[in-house]
Structure to design on (472 residues):
């Protein structure tokens, strides 16, 4: 079965990423501007949607300042005019992604297709060609992957080098939802098809099966690398601490959700000191940022542009949290994404990391749409925003609870759902109630109520992400 892979593109992308990893900030900026110029030219010539959108900025050079931002709804509503290949039709791609038996299969023999989880709206459909996938693969292999004991720098120079870095010498288990064309699953299955070694040493495990069945499957497989969501990693850490999960991964890779310090330490200890690394990505650009050994996320800004902005889409200074962030994908010329409203709250930092990387550090605060807003104690008529990541951190780090769901019932009331029962449930709910109420007050909010519901299993969405935060 065909897979989208070009060894020459892979080798060129790998060498480029390796060189840029240690380049000066000025050389990184030069690479970024060259790729932005290429993207804008491709969009003007190949996309009817962008030809119209970019017309007012014509003659102003290859800059983003005068380009209007776009949303997923706009782009998906005009999909056939958005893409630069007229052979790509949204109705046909919807039919393709509706068939779970075709996950990882090449569309038209030359495109990789995945969908977003669509938790708040209709799923987006995203298409990549071989050059774009080579960039994603190279960024993952060179910057994100934690090298094993047998890895050597010289091995990265062969045409299948990144695939080697993705799995040679390791047994990789990806624990996620397997019933859909989600980016992580599609990318994983594609690499298994391209590299015959990975077919035996890498496997997807469904997060939606029973914990007992998942533990049994992982015990049989004995992975050395475990990749999953932070909430799932914490669940598996509990199973390991209880002695039921008996695996010893050298590395736990997490993404898709925020990884708090307490959860990280819990995972590390439960898996005998395994390296724990998080990442930040999206269906719109899979490897946005990677975590260094110093515990900081670094933006792959040689291939992606992030613009933190306020609620009026004005630039936010470095060091300050944004309302949302605009993403420009410099690798994908088939489906141009230029100043795309990603909906995430982020903070870009100007200071350099102690690891020596020239790539900027990034903090991710969560989805803009999931922010809880409660009345302000000091300013009548105004509200205070409580970020989901901050609330989760309070529950995890101050209360030691990792499996829970919070819902805003009304302006003054939160509902905390936990899987515990009886006296244990009452104790953990009381502990969390005190911590959450104290946190909200410290943020300047009016006093809130925290109600508890015991014996509730935290639900997961189609993509396998835990549904921790629910709006009123």
């Amino acid at each position: 079965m065909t897979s989208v892979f070009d060894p020459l593109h892979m080798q060129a992308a790998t060498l480029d990423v390796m060189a840029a990893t240690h380049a000066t900030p000025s050389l990184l900026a030069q690479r970024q501007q060259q790729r932005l110029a290429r993207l804008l030219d491709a969009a003007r010539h190949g996309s009817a949607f962008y030809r119209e959108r970019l017309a007012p900025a014509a003659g102003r050079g290859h800059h983003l300042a005068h380009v209007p931002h776009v949303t997923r709804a706009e782009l998906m509503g005009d999909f056939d005019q958005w893409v630069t290949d007229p052979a790509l039709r949204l109705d046909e791609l919807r039919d393709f992604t509706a068939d779970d038996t075709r996950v990882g299969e090449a569309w038209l023999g030359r495109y990789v297709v995945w969908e977003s989880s669509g938790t708040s709206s209709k799923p987006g459909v995203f298409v990549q060609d071989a050059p774009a996938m080579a960039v994603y693969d190279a960024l993952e292999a060179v910057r994100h992957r934690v090298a094993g004991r047998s890895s050597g720098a010289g091995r990265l120079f062969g045409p299948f080098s990144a695939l080697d870095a993705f799995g040679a010498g390791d047994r990789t288990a990806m624990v996620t939802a397997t019933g859909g064309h989600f980016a992580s699953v599609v990318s994983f299955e594609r690499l298994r098809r391209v590299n015959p070694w990975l077919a035996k040493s890498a496997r997807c495990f469904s997060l939606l099966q029973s914990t007992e069945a998942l533990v049994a499957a992982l015990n049989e497989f004995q992975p050395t690398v475990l990749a999953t969501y932070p909430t799932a990693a914490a669940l598996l850490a509990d199973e390991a601490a209880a002695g039921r999960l008996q695996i010893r991964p050298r590395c736990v890779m997490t993404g898709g959700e925020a990884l708090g310090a307490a959860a990280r330490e819990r995972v590390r200890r439960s898996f005998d000191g395994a390296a724990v690394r998080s990442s930040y990505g999206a269906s719109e650009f899979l490897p946005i940022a990677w975590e260094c050994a110093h515990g900081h996320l670094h933006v792959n800004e040689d291939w992606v542009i992030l613009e933190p902005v306020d609620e009026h889409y004005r630039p936010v200074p470095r060091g300050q949290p944004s309302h949302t962030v605009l993403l420009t994908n410099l690798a994908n010329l088939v489906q141009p994404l230029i100043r795309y409203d990603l909906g995430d709250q982020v903070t870009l930092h100007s200071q350099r990391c102690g690891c020596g990387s020239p790539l900027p550090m990034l903090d991710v605060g969560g989805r803009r749409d999931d922010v809880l807003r409660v009345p302000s104690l000091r300013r009548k008529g105004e509200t205070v925003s409580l970020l989901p990541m901050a609330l989760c951190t309070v529950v995890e780090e101050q209360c030691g609870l990792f499996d829970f769901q919070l819902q805003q019932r009304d302006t003054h009331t939160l509902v905390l759902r936990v899987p515990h029962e009886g006296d244990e449930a009452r104790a953990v709910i009381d502990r969390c109630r005190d911590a959450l109420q104290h946190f909200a007050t410290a943020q300047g909010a009016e006093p809130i109520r925290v109600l508890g519901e015991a014996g509730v299993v935290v639900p997961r969405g189609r993509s396998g992400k835990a549904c921790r935060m629910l709006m009123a």
